[in-house]
Structure formats: structure tokens, C-alpha cells
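Issue 218. Parser rejects a valid record. Input:
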Amino acid sequence: MIRDWDDAYQNAAYIDGAEAYPVKWAAAAAQFRADTPPEVLSYGAGARQQTDLFLPDRTPTALTVYVHGGYWKAFHRHDWSHLAAGPLSLGHAVAMPSYTLAPDATVSEISAEMVAAIIQLASRIDGPIYLTGHSAGGHLVTRLAGAGVLPAKVAARIAHVVSISGVHDLRPLLNTNINDVLKMSEAEAIAQSPALATPVPGTRLTAIVGTKERPEFRRQTDLLANIWEGSGAATRTCHLPGAHHFNVIDGLAKADSSLMKLLLNPPV
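Output the parser choked on:
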């Protein structure tokens, strides 16, 4: 039984050298953008309603979309540009959208922004679409796979949804200080929880978490795959050995990593 919900969703306190990670991410991302400048797309009028689109040196074979985490209230697409390296080197276009952060936007509004971003990207890049996101981004990409969320023609192009350390049932967050910023009601938490939604028929999901992550993130990962398997999706759960919440995403920057192999090979 969980008695301290704030502790259950606390990551940094359980990672050695946690404070160094944001600095490292930002530096690697800035260097990647300098070497590989993206095209910037605006999917709305808001200051953060923009997407960095990295294009390969040939016609893209697919589109990979990475949605960042930060409990819907922190970080920017510019902090993660280096994670485009893996799929980009394999011929994918790679899109990294920003979104309006809480408390300036609700989780429902952020989800709607991601719908707008994906619709725009689907009109720009042909071929299959791979959706992946980390932490809150894992929530957002799995939310996109819910029945009726995306237009049918766009949803039909989603080849694989990969949630990395995602939060899929938002109701526990109502018990945390995170909700001091999110200000979710119980009704919104229910409506925005992918674990409580029906996936689009034919959805293929991989739910990934590190073996050194907090128990609640491991539970949330297993929960979604379990429920969606019973809702007709092809699902797979992977606990990456030795990975914690801050380094579990590192493999996206490497074409030959186990994480990239998972992304490119959906369950059947």
C-alpha cells in the first residue's frame, strides 16, 4: 500500500548525480541542433506550439515523433534534440514538438495540442508514423492512440507507439503535489488516462521502463500493456536492465541500441 504518493513519483532523489542530467541533455541537444539544424513548424499560435523537424539526407522512410516529459510542467523540445540521432540516421524524419506547460495549460489542453501537432506532421511527411515519448511524453503518445483521438486516416498510419517510463493512469497524481500545478479534477484524470481508454483497433504498443526506476513507474508501465492487451492491442513490456528514469531514453541517440531496435520492431 502506497502511503507517500509524492515519494512514489519522485525520481531525482533516487538517482545519483541527478542534478547533472538536465545540463548534460541541454548541451548535447544544442550541439546536435548546431550540427543538424531543424525545420521549425508552428502547429498553433501559442509560443510553445512549435515542432522541430529533423530531416534525413534522403526521402524519409518514416516519421518518428518524440514527445518530452517533465510532468507536463517542465522542459522544452530543445532539451532533447540529440535523441533524434538514432532514427534520423536510419532515414526517418524526426519530429520533436513543444507544448504549453502547466499551469498555463491543462493536461487536456496539452493533449489537444499534441493532436494538432501530429495532424500537421502527418500532412508534411508520408509513410508510417512511430510515436514515442518519455514520462509525461509517454502519457501523451499513448493518449494519441486512444480510439477517436486522432482522425482515422492519421491513426491508421501509426505503426508503433512506444511509451518510455510513461504515466498511464493519472488518478494517483491527484494525491501528489504535482497536482498543485496541474490542477486536475478527478473527471479530467479519468478522461485523460490512456489506461482507461480503448486503443485504436490494430494498435501496437511497447511499454518500456528501467529496472532501477521507482516501483510506481514500473507498475504504470505494466498496467497499460496489460489492459491494452485485453482491449485488442498487440502489446509488449520491456524492463531495460540497469536503467533509471533519467538514462532510460539514452538509446534513442544510437541507431544500434536496444531501445532503437524495440522502436523499429513493434509487437505482432
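Fixed in the parser; the record now loads. The mean pLDDT is 98.
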